[in-house]
Amino acid sequence: MSLNHWPALTTLVHEGWLLRFADGYTKRANSVSAIYGEDHDADDGDVERRIAWCERRYAALGLPSVVKITPFDRPASLDRLLAERGYAKMDTVSVQTLELARIGLAEASHVHMAEQPTEEWVETFCRLDGVAEAHRPAMVRMLAPNGLMKGFATFRHDGKPVACGLGVVEDEWLGLYDIVTDAAYRNRGIGKAIVANLLYWGKEKGARRAYLAVVADNAPALRLYAKLGFEEAYRYWYRVKRQSD
Question: Which of these, 208, 199, 211, 192, lies nearest to 101 by C-alpha position?
Answer without folding.
Answer: 208
